[in-house]
Each structure stands twice: as structure tokens, then as C-alpha cells.
Amino acid sequence: MTDAPKPPEHVIDARTWEPPEPFVATMDALDAMQPHERVLLILNREPHPLYRALLKQGYQYQTTFNDATGFEILIWREAV
Questions:
Q1: Is 73 exposed, middle or buried (0-12, 13-18, 19+ CB in 10 A)?
Q2: φ, ψ dihedrals at 4, nearest 5°
Q3: Do 58 and 48 form a contact (C-beta atoms < 8 A)?
Q4: Where are the alpha helices (DSSP H) in 7-70?
Q5: pLDDT digits 0-9 by tens, 67-76
């Protein structure tokens, strides 16, 4: 039997926020995040500028779309 995936340590539900609030809140959460932690960002639109910033700073991400919640972006830093 395999263990279920652990939920992310930080969840930012920014579906009702206006830019640049989701970007700023995400970057703040990443700055405070421990190496093994993950952030889940929930938005109504896909955050293309955030993707570029994440890759530039060495973060990985996975985006899924859910009809009920919108875009869910799971963010983490690869272990070195």
C-alpha cells in the first residue's frame, strides 16, 4: 500500500485577487518556505509571468486545471 501524497504546506487561494497580489504573495511564501515544503497557488487564470520568475529562481512547478477550482499551481524547489 502506498502513502497518499502529502498536502502542500502553504496554500494561497488568490482566485479573487487582482494582479500583482498573487505574484507578490507567492514570492513571499517561497521566500519563507523551508527546502522540503511546497506551495499551492489557486488562480482563475494561468500565471505566465510567475512561471518565468519561478524557473529563473530555480523552482519547479506543476499546473493542473480543475473546472471547480481553476488553475492549481504546485511549486517546490528540487533538492540539491
A1: buried
A2: -70, 150
A3: no
A4: 21-32, 48-56
A5: 999 999 999 9
CA-based Rg of the chain, rounded to a whole angstrom?
13
Q: Which residues contact 28 (CB under 8 A, 6 or more apart)?
A: none
State the pTM of this model.
Answer: 0.90
In whole angstroms, what is the distance from residue 20 CA to residue 22 CA? 6
Question: Residue 36 burial (CB < 10 Å; 0-12/13-18/19+)?
Answer: exposed
* pLDDT reported for residue 80: 62
8 Å CB contact between 55 and 32: no
